Amino acid sequence: MNLATWVERNGRRRRDAPALAVGDEVHATWAQFAERVAAAATGLRDRGLAPGDRVAILMRNRPEYLEAQFAAWHAGLIAVPVNARLHREEIAYVLGHSGTSLVLTDEEHLDDVGPLQESVESVRSVLVVPGPGWDALLGADAMPLVDRAADDPAWLFYTSGTTGRPKGATLTHGNLLMASLSYYADIGPVAEEDCVLHAAPLSHGSGLYGLPHVAKGAASVFPASGALDGPELLTLLARWRGMSFFAAPIMVTRLAGDPALAGADLSGLKTIIYGGAPMYLADLEQALETFGPRLAQIYGQGETPMTITGLSMADHADRDHPRWRARMQGVGFPRTDVEVRVVDLDDGELPPGEAGEVVVRGRVVMAGYWDQPEETAETMRGGWLHTGDVGSFDDDGFLTLHDRSKDLIISGGMNIYPREVEEALMTHPGVRSVAVVGRYDPEWGEAVVAFVVPDDPAPTAADLDRTCLDRIARYKRPKEYHFVEALPTNNYGKVLKRELRQRFTDGPPPQQR
Ligand code: AMP
Prior knowledge:
This protein is α/β, with parallel strands linked by helices. The model is unreliable at 508-513 (pLDDT under 50). It binds adenosine monophosphate.
């Protein structure tokens, strides 16, 4: 099934209902959205593109983004949503690697993207959206939907590259259909009068979670500011009900602390789906206080689009559970449509309580990495997606993630999971955020080092040491504290531990994995 079927269908069924909106203004009804998609599809094909060709979409979140994406699918093309905040060199890499022929970009990104027409061989043209070229596409006659099979690629999802060159996870129409169905199964049903708010980049989680809403004929709403703070959320909630949105933990934490939301009427807010990086318990407790039981956590990867495990809204609300606190530090139960295991280095399944690599199997898992057969074979060995994340199940089948294997610290032969140390440090009210990494140590192999963004009043290293001693084993506590103004993050808000490790220039790199 071609995913663009959803737009075509809702164009008939929900003709006059809002499909795309900016703030409280409707940009397109479903009938208009469907017309634009079918016309732009013709326009794309008229530019010489054939089914299977790649079209990159690089723009800020805006309604035209979804028009472009669904037009590409309608025409049988493969969309390559590119994170709009990438550096020009990174963009060039993604375009070249994916063999993109046409780039759809907006005025804001033209300076970065325009010149790539000359330097990236595959790129034949760059079209500015919105703009006269795009209008010309929209003026074409509608074309019939191109037939797509479940294993036809739909979306090349370039990984966020926290560990080197991004890889293009090839997501098929079937993968994205499965991810959407499992949203209904595990996060919640979507009604046609609901809406999804695109407060995070469409090239990542927000785009993926938008799909089950498009399928149901719910509106896709874009904050007018392009970002989102408490007052804007309240304005949007005054117009739109049944609202859900995806946000990185860092963004949830920021919103939760926004004074405008304290005690505000949030009845129109349905779900905030957070994930993509760890959410620390102290932050989660604050978020639950602000938002009530409207939070759902997901653990996923581009390779298995945001679908490995989930901590449902009901799990969050179940405060009487004897292990509620422990659970809130985990990532929940396997999603309905996947099998999840924890394995050792030889891919042998480990029993509950033992930590190993998390592997996943199911119809949501990518077809492979685009044009990287060796990396695909390595990552998909034995038919299981190897996530590179270290986790362990408890007896109930609840998964806790420790860290990515490369972030594990081995000190004096003991494994130390930074997440555990970070959780301990976050309980100190003087810690706003923290990242723990290993530093080369001639005696211990590695030593634990904490980078702390202090709050006001700032704690001393001795205060933090005491906090750790009260909560975790002695050997796990940091040997050094570095107080910093901010932690380095990538464009999706993930802390770049690699960059922190690079700050230590003495000795060999802590781990070469
Ligand atoms: P990406 O493919 O860019 O979304 O990155 C996926 C990685 O983000 C996973 O392999 C995990 O390391 C991390 N991640 C995703 N969701 C969570 C979560 N809920 N908690 C902790 N880490 C997460």
